[in-house]
From TrEMBL:
<dbReference type="GO" id="GO:0016787">
    <property type="term" value="F:hydrolase activity"/>
</dbReference>
<protein>
    <submittedName>
        <fullName>Alpha/Beta hydrolase protein</fullName>
    </submittedName>
</protein>
<feature type="domain" description="Xaa-Pro dipeptidyl-peptidase-like">
    <location>
        <begin position="186"/>
        <end position="395"/>
    </location>
</feature>
<dbReference type="InterPro" id="IPR029058">
    <property type="entry name" value="AB_hydrolase_fold"/>
</dbReference>
<keyword id="KW-0732">Signal</keyword>
<dbReference type="InterPro" id="IPR000383">
    <property type="entry name" value="Xaa-Pro-like_dom"/>
</dbReference>
<dbReference type="Pfam" id="PF02129">
    <property type="entry name" value="Peptidase_S15"/>
</dbReference>
<keyword id="KW-0378">Hydrolase</keyword>
<feature type="signal peptide">
    <location>
        <begin position="1"/>
        <end position="18"/>
    </location>
</feature>
<dbReference type="InterPro" id="IPR050261">
    <property type="entry name" value="FrsA_esterase"/>
</dbReference>
Length: 448
C-alpha cells in the first residue's frame, strides 16, 4: 500500500523536484492515481488500493464505489465514517450467515468486512492515543481470522519470538488439488514464499494481493509483520527497526524446522516499503533462494530529504533537532493537504516518535548501500512501476547496483499496471514474479 504520502512533506515548503532520468526506461512519476475515485488525490489513491483487493476477494467493486461517493474530499473523519459504516453493514451480513451451511458466503463477507475496518483506520494515526486505532484493528483481526477458519485449508497462526517483540505469522498451505502444480508434489516439501508488507500495509492485505496466486501454484504462502507494522506496532509498541534481518531470520529458522517446506526454495518478498525491507534482510540472511523487491527501494530517507528545500536539508543535516522540528510542525499546522498530513502522521506513528527529526534519523538507519547489496547471495527480482511516484529511479539504481544478481521488470501504464506495486493489476504482478521464481527454483545454481 501507499507510503508515498510520507514523501510529500517537501510540498509543505512548495518545493518542486524533478524525477530521475533513467536510460531506456520511461518513468512518468505522476502523483495522480489511474482512476480518480475522489478529487482528493490521497483519498483517490487509498480508495484505488482498497478497490484492488477485489482481485483477491478482499473487497467488492460496488461497495468501494458506494463508500467513495459518500466521502468528502479532505475530510479524514468522513473517510473513517463511511468505511466504518460499510464495514459494520458487511459484518452484519457475515455474522447473519449460517457459516456451517454456507461457509463460502460467510467467509467472503468476513474478508470484506475486515478490509473495510482497515480502511476506516487508515487516516486516524495522527493521534496515537485515539482508541479507534485499537478497536478497529481488533475488528480487522476478528473478521479476518473468522474467515480463515472457514477456508478448506485454514492457515496456521503462530507467534515467534523476536529480540524485543513477537512476530505474528500466517502459514498457508496450498489446496491439495494445487499440489500437482508444484514440483515437490502432494505431501512433500514445497517451495515457500514469505511475503512482508510495508509502511502502512497489514499482512492480511497480502493474501488478497498475491496470496491466492501463490497458493494456486501449489506453493506455501507465509506472511509476517515486524516492528512498525500494524500488529507489532500495536501489540509490542515498537516502531520500525534498522536490523530487519532480526525479524526475518527467526521466521526462516522456523520454516526450516517444518517437514512441508523445501528449505532450498524459500523466497522472501516485500511489497511497497517492503521492497526495501526484504533486500535489507537479505543482506544478512543468506538462506534465501530469491528475493522479490516490489517495488525496489534503497533509501526512503534519501527520497524524503530530497523534497525539502536546500535550507531545510542543511538544517536537518546540522543536527539541530529543535529547529528542524519547529519548522516542520509550523508548516504542518498550516496545511490542509491530506497527503502531507497523512505522510507525517503515519511516519511518526510507524516509527514511534513525536519528532520529525527522529523520524528522519530512524529512516536513515535503514538505507541500503552498495556494500550491503554486495552481501546478498541470491537472485533479486526488482520491480518498478512506470507511474510509481514513491522513490523514482531507485528500482533502476538497485538493479544496476546488484548487477547480475538482479532481474529488472517494469510494469507499464498501457496495460494498467504502472502504479506503485502494480496496484490494480495483481494478476500481472503474480504472473511476472511467480513465473520468474519458478525458473529460479528450478535453476541448478539456486539449489545449494
Amino acid at each position: 500500500m501507499r507510503l508515498g504520502s510520507s514523501l510529500c512533506v517537501g510540498a509543505l515548503f512548495t518545493l518542486a523536484t524533478a524525477s530521475r532520468s533513467i536510460p531506456n526506461v520511461t518513468i512518468t512519476n505522476s502523483t495522480t492515481s489511474i482512476y480518480q475515485l475522489s478529487s482528493d488525490s490521497e483519498f483517490a489513491f487509498v480508495l484505488e488500493t482498497f478497490l484492488s483487493f477485489a482481485n483477491g476477494g478482499g473487497a467488492a467493486t460496488g461497495e468501494i464505489l458506494r463508500a467513495a461517493s459518500q466521502i468528502k474530499p479532505g475530510d479524514m473523519e468522513s473517510f473513517y465514517r463511511e468505511f466504518k459504516y460499510l464495514a459494520d453493514q458487511i459484518a452484519d451480513q457475515a455474522t447473519s450467515v449460517n457459516a456451517t451451511r454456507f461457509p463460502v458466503s460467510a467467509r467472503e463477507a468476513h474478508l470484506r468486512a475486515s478490509s473495510y475496518y482497515r480502511a476506516a483506520d487508515f487516516f486516524l494515526h495522527g493521534n496515537a492515543s485515539d482508541p479507534r486505532i485499537q478497536t478497529l484493528w481488533d475488528s480487522v483481526l476478528d473478521h479476518y481470522d473468522t474467515a480463515m477458519k472457514l477456508l478448506p485449508d485454514p492457515p496456521e497462526q503462530v507467534e515467534l519470538d523476536g529480540t524485543e517483540f513477537k512476530i505474528p505469522i500466517y502459514f498457508y498451505s496450498p489446496p491439495k488439488s494445487s499440489h500437482a502444480n508444484a514440483t515437490s508434489g502432494q505431501g512433500k516439501r514445497l517451495p515457500t514464499i514469505l511475503i512482508g508488507s510495508g509502511y502502512d500495509e497489514a499482512q492480511q492485505d497480502t493474501y488478497h494481493q498475491l496470496g491466492k496466486e501463490i497458493l494456486a501454484r501449489g506453493w506455501n504462502f507465509v506472511t509476517y509483520e515486524g516492528p512498525g507494522q500494524p500488529t507489532v506496532r500495536r501489540q509490542s509498541n515498537i516502531g520500525f527497526i534498522p536490523d530487519w534481518w532480526n525479524v526475518v531470520t527467526p521466521v526462516v529458522d522456523w520454516l526450516r524446522t517444518r517437514d512441508d517446506v523445501d528449505t532450498d526454495r524459500i523466497a522472501l518478498g516485500g511489497i511497497s516499503f517492503g521492497g526495501q525491507l526484504a533486500p535489507l534482510a537479505a543482506t544478512r540472511e543468506h538462506r534465501l533462494a530469491a528475493v522479490l523487491a516490489i517495488d525496489g527501494m534503497l533509501d526512503l530517507h534519501e527520497r524524503t530529504l530530497q523534497q525539502f528545500p536546500a535550507s531545510i536539508q542543511k538544517l536537518y543535516q546540522s543536527g539541530n533537532k529543535t529547529a528542524f522540528d519547529a519548522i516542520v510542525w509550523e508548516a504542518y499546522k498550516k496545511t490542509t493537504d491530506t497527503s502531507q498530513i497523512w505522510g507525517i502522521d503515519q511516519g511518526l506513528w510507524s516509527f514511534k516518535t513525536s519528532s520529525p527529526f527522529e523520524w528522519m534519523t530512524k529512516m536513515n538507519k535503514m538505507a541500503i548501500n552498495q556494500t550491503m547489496l554486495d552481501n546478498i547471495t541470491c537472485p533479486v527480482f526488482v520491480a518498478s512501476g512506470q507511474d510509481d511516484h514513491i522513490a523514482p529511479g531507485q528500482p533502476e539504481r538497485m538493479a544496476r547496483m546488484l548487477g547480475d544478481k538482479a532481474y529488472y521488470h517494469l510494469f507499464k501504464n498501457n496495460v494498467g499496471a504502472g502504479e506503485h506495486c502494480a496496484i490494480g493489476a495483481e494478476p500481472q504482478l503474480a504472473m511476472a514474479t511467480m513465473d520468474w521464481l519458478d525458473e529460479v527454483f528450478e535453476s541448478p545454481t539456486s539449489r545449494s
